[in-house]
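Narrative of activities, Objective 1.

The group set out to show that a structural description can be obtained from nothing but a protein's sequence at a throughput compatible with the screening campaign. Below is one input-output pair from the validation batch, recorded exactly as produced.
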Amino acid sequence: MIQWFPGHMAKAKKEIAAVLPLVDIIFELVDARIPYSSQNPLFLDLIKNKPRLVLLTKSEMADVDITEIWVKRFEKSGAAALAVDAVSGYNVNRIAKAVRNKLRDKIIKKQIRGMKMRPTRAMIIGIPNVGKSTLINKLVRKRATAVGNRPGVTKAQQWIRINPQLELLDTPGMLWPKIEERTVAIHLALTGAIKSEIVPFIDIGEYFFDFFRGCYSELFTARYGVDLNLSNQEIAKAIVTTRGIIREDYYEKAFNIVINDFQNMRIGRITLDRP
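Output recorded for this entry:
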């Protein structure tokens, strides 16, 4: 079990609860490679019955077929859902339409009453390193917030005008106090949501080799030319040997190579969370 609750995350939780009455819809970001592992259970308790749009970020790094299944699963739970990729811009221009569809009944009621239409207010939430700042910058077509490839870049809430119809409240990435599922912790470490040092590195590497035995074995073999029926030690030695690396810590070095390749999409489009 991994246990923590950094001060800025505890503060973020209180601030989210305080400003929630001002918000029309929640943008909940999850990593398309780990839609289950990257969904903070605290958020559902906080947002309660607020309309919710789940955005599966980094979708062009994930398995297309599995992503479609996850989108349908989120929709079945009552949320709107959309796979997006902020780097390439995939589906980013469909977010506004998804918001209108989700709030359609509320908008119609206001129009019938003759109420003046103000910009829709959305709150964007997600765990660290899920791509909130990158998505916001893509939406406003400029560098509106600090972006980094490390968890915890955004430290405080800030309102951002996307267009005359939409205002967005950015919030810091927030994890939950206790990560009790081993697989969830490993998936978060593999995707950079938590520091890899938090989980024993050997555990992460051995889990990943076993994962490839059950899923994407063809992609693994195509990348490394190694038979996954071999032992982990034999696979690791073959990977480093083909790269001309001879060193005593070859086991960890091989894990580093595979994890780095996964994070930089050199193996292929991979989803760790299977529906």
